[in-house]
TrEMBL record:
Belongs to the inositol monophosphatase superfamily. This is Inositol monophosphatase. Mg(2+) binds at E79, D102, L104, D105, D240. One of its GO terms (molecular function) is metal ion binding. The keyword Metal-binding applies. GO terms for biological process: inositol metabolic process; signal transduction. SUPFAM superfamilies: Carbohydrate phosphatase. Its cofactor is Mg(2+). Pfam families: Inositol_P. Keywords: Magnesium, Metal-binding.
Amino acid sequence: MNRVALPLQQLCDAAMQAALEAGRFVQSTDRKALQRHFKNAGSSEASRIVTEVDVRSEAIIRECLQAISEQWGIAFVGEESSQDLSGTIPDRLLESYYWCVDPLDGTLPYVEGRPGYAVSIALVDQSGEPLIGVVYDPLDATLMHAIKGQGAYRGQALINQATSLSPALMVYADTSFRTHENYADALNILNACAQDSGLDGVELVYGSGAVKNACQVLEHPAACYLKLPKPENGGGSIWDFAATACIVDEAGGWASNIHGKPLELNRKGSTFMNHQGVLYASNERVARYLIAKLQVVFPAS
């Protein structure tokens, strides 16, 4: 394969337009009439639920990106279409770059009529490094984007400081966090981190999808989003984290696995991220503290 220099700004503009079009469709749909279906993608309801809105949103994004993808030889990996490709070599391993798309992250809060859902698009190179991240929240019409090395933006404003002054360590988590066998260990570590940082305890926040959880970390001076490793498939997939890994990193935050290594966003074996967990943090101090303590509970294999 020939690796070429891409027009990242042009590609980011295309991704933003695709996210806006998909998000507007998502928000305009009457959720009361939606049929819920379930896919084999994890143990929780949140990870398995899918609707026709997810499928149509992905089709809108694919159509928006098709021409520029063909021009530059960029593969497309979407959450919904990828479910049908088991047993084949995925396009993301055959091309130098691929779009990593979650057409509606947080489907459960979406169908329940509450905040916590978003459209997510990333451009990832074959090494697994995200070069572009775009997230659109249809509920409040907020568009976030980042290009590697060029900062992260909310609308036209550079993201460079927290918008909240919470006195606690804000911890965003999926509902499955509470049922993990190492929940008590993790909670003790989080409380110790808050104490070490001079904060007023821990405030746990549940209910959003992975994309919004990661984005909300940037709103606070001391915050994290933590997904613990587990042996079974699940724990989110590459499309849940690719865009926000770019955005959070460019905003001065932290995105890694729980051992402090870059997220594996293009590994051969699976799209799942359960094997090494996921950690987002608003700053390096919080991240380093949690990594040091979590490695005692979850030694690197």
